[in-house]
Write a structure and sequence with these properties.
InterPro entries: ABC_thiamin-permease_prd (IPR017195). It comes from Oenococcus sicerae. This is Transporter. The chain is mainly α. The protein has helices at about 15-45, 45-50, 55-60, 60-80, 80-90, 95-110, 115-135, 140-160, 170-200. The chain has one domain. It is about 80% helix and about 0% strand. α2 crosses α4 and α6 runs antiparallel to α7. The chain is globular. About 35% of the residues are buried.
Length: about 210
């Protein structure tokens, strides 16, 4: 007797093609955003000089403060590929695969981060995937909001050790955590929901 599988379990060729397409689109977008990110960092050098008078910058360093605040404020942009993939494909592993493929494309184009992109792709993808898994993949919108929390926990937790947050003041670390979550909530939560809403309204996705 044949066993019927849930529509959230088995992958089809069209699902694979779709996640590859999403990964390619976001990979190119990530690469362009990285160039803009670097340009913005150069423009804000005068602000860094001004911040050097602040007590936190005297402890941590103005350049480090600026870099970490910018990373926290823009982290949500780099997490978008996962939840978009999960909402459109609605299959286990789609968030992780979408984010990882985007990282691979970004690295292949010529990212200066190299293999670090792959590590971040895995961390961010796993964070998104966990959120949808907690919702059982049956309630994608619930999974989306869960993913904003799980993505924050995993990605910030990784960066805590990667950027040695244990060596900076606790109040600054907590401030970064708040900015980090708000960024993911906005870009990888609200903005992704808006994208999905219009795609669904246009009947481009189910």
């Amino acid at each position: 007797m044949a066993v019927r599988t849930s529509n959230t379990s088995g992958w089809k060729i069209k699902d694979i093609m779709m996640v590859v397409l999403i990964g390619m689109i976001f990979g190119v977008m990530f690469y362009v955003l990285k160039i803009s990110h670097n340009a913005f960092a150069s423009i804000t050098k005068p602000l860094i000089s001004f911040l050097s008078l602040h007590s936190i910058t005297l402890t941590v360093g103005a350049s480090q403060v600026s870099q970490q605040v910018m990373t926290a404020a823009t982290i949500g942009l780099w997490v978008m590929a996962g939840p978009v993939s999960a909402l459109i494909i609605k299959k286990p592993g789609s968030a992780l695969l979408g984010e990882l493929l985007a990282a691979i494309v970004k690295m292949a184009i010529g990212s200066t981060w190299g293999t670090t992109d792959l590590i971040w792709g895995l961390v961010q993808g796993a964070g998104s995937e966990l959120g949808f898994a907690l919702a059982g993949y049956k309630k994608p919108l619930v999974g989306l909001w869960f993913s904003t929390i799980t993505s924050t926990v995993l990605s910030f937790g990784y960066n805590y050790f990667y950027a040695a947050y244990d060596k900076i003041p606790v109040n600054f670390t907590l401030s970064l955590l708040i900015i980090w979550f708000v960024s993911i909530l906005f870009f990888a939560g609200i903005l992704v929901f808006v994208i999905y809403f219009f795609l669904k309204r246009a009947r481009l996705v189910k």
